[in-house]
């Protein structure tokens, strides 16, 4: 199944009345609730997805800011979105497909075999001259049966990963180096992690070609013959890295707890500076 789709391909699916469910996953750190933007204009038929409360759960601080939901929680949400068994699910956002990738990662690892991301998101749709609709779509509930979510790394596995593989930190370089930390209580990175910022995977909001993506991963030491994992601030952008890896033919395992869990867990070591194990370049 394709991982990405275009506005034209989606329009054809909708026109053919195929079993397709479109999900609007607008979310950003500076605008976590995308409902107002969604109601002002969305792809016709798209259902709004609340990333903070439907694609995440919440518990103790040491669980991180966006722990993954359990199977029952995600299944209840997917049924509310109108997803049924056998549907093609198409997801999008308005910020480089980072939030959409979280939906792709969760749903594709829960047994839905055809989950696609609109490459370029909402801007690609409107840039193609296609109309939006206002208001809120309330679909007939679906009947999808999800499988238990295939887990990512836990905190101990993330700590050990650099011993035998490449652990990618996809946050901004200044956060990786520990120069600033706007979200979490401690600045720095997991010892042994290599910085490969999220913008490395896209160009003008669209994913780079598979060859370009492979080159970006290879520049950080991540190749298909080396185990690769990724983390970010709270597990959202790490899903985007997993999607980029899938497009490049590289399996990228996600550490969902990411820095928000690591920095809230007492006793976990912290590296700072530009080098994986800390310190500035020689």
Describe the structure.
This protein is an alpha/beta fold. It has 2 domains: 4-127, 3-Layer(aba) Sandwich (Oxidized Rhodanese, domain 1), CATH 3.40.250.10; 155-262, Oxidized Rhodanese, domain 1, CATH 3.40.250. It contains 11 helices and 11 strands. A 5-stranded parallel sheet has the order 1-5-4-2-3.
Overall CATH architecture of the largest domain:
3-Layer(aba) Sandwich
* Largest β sheet strand count, sense and barrel closure: 5 strands, parallel
CATH overall fold name of the largest domain: Oxidized Rhodanese, domain 1
- Quaternary structure type: single chain
Low-confidence stretches: none
Alpha plus pi helix count:
11
The level-1 CATH class of the largest domain: Alpha Beta
Spatial extent as radius of gyration: 18 Å
Output the structural class: alpha/beta
Secondary structure: helix percent: 25-40%
Number of domains as seen in the coordinates: 2
Summary tags:
282 residues; alpha/beta; Oxidized Rhodanese, domain 1; 2 domains; 5-stranded parallel β-sheet; 11 helices; 30% helix; 12% strand
């Amino acid at each position: 199944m394709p991982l990405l789709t275009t506005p034209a391909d989606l329009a054809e699916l909708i026109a053919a009345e195929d079993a397709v469910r479109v999900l609007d996953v607008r979310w950003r750190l500076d605008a976590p609730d995308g409902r107002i933007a969604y109601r002002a204009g969305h792809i016709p038929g798209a259902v709004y997805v609340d990333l903070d409360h439907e694609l995440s759960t919440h518990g103790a601080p040491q669980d991180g800011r966006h722990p993954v939901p359990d199977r029952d929680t995600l299944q209840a949400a997917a049924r509310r979105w109108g997803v049924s068994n056998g549907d093609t699910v198409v997801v999008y956002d308005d910020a480089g497909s980072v939030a959409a990738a979280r939906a792709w990662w969760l749903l594709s690892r829960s047994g839905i075999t055809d989950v696609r991301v609109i490459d370029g998101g909402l801007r690609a749709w409107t840039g193609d001259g296609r109309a939006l609709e206002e208001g809120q779509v309330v679909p007939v509930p679906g009947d999808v049966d999800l499988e238990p979510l295939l887990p990512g790394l836990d905190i101990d596995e993330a700590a050990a990963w650099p011993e035998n593989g490449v652990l990618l930190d996809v946050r901004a370089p200044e956060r990786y180096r520990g120069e600033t930390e706007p979200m979490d209580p401690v600045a720095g990175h997991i010892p042994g992690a290599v910085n490969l910022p999220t913008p490395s995977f896209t160009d003008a909001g669209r994913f780079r070609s598979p060859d370009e993506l492979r080159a970006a991963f290879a520049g950080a030491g991540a190749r298909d013959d080396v185990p690769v994992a990724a983390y970010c601030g709270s597990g959202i952008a790490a899903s985007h890295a997993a999607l980029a890896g899938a497009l490049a033919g590289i399996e990228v395992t996600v550490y969902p707890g990411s820095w928000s869990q690591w920095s809230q867990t007492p006793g976990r070591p912290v590296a700072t500076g530009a080098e994986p194990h800390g310190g500035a370049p020689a």
